[in-house]
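[Backbone geometry]
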Amino acid sequence: MYLAFKDVRAQFEDFKGVEENEHLYYTVSNNAVVPQPRGLFVPLNDSSGELLDAIANGAIATVWDKGKKLPHYTPNHFPVFFTDDPAGSVRKILALYLEKLDGDNVKKMNMTKFVFLNKELLKENKETYDIAVMLEKLASKTLNSEGRE
C-alpha cells in the first residue's frame, strides 16, 4: 500500500499546487540527489539539496518549510505542502503511514519507500543505521507524544 496524496493533504492546512487525489507516493526522501520515483521530497536542512534536483530525480511533490522561500522555478501545478516543522511533519506522515499499514496482512504488497540520508538523523540513532529501525523509533516517539501506547 502506497502513501496517498489525499492522506498527506489531510495533514497540512497550507497547500499550493494542483490537488492530485489519485497520486500515490512510491518514495519519501530528504535527499534531492537520490532516485525518488513518484517521490515526496522533504528537505530537512541545507544538506538535503535543491528542489530542482529532487524533481529531476522523480519527486512529484514536496513538504516545504514555511520559513524558506519556495524556488522561483517551482512549477505552478507542483504540489507543495507548507509546514513550520519539516521533521515533525515527517514523523506525522510516518505515523499516518504505519497506521494505514496496521492490520494489513497481505504478504506481498507495494509499499512506499522512506529514504532518509541525513547525517543528523543518523547521529540521533547511534545504535543502527538501518532505516527501518530508525523509522520505527520516529514513529514510536510520535505515537508516545500523542498519548498513545
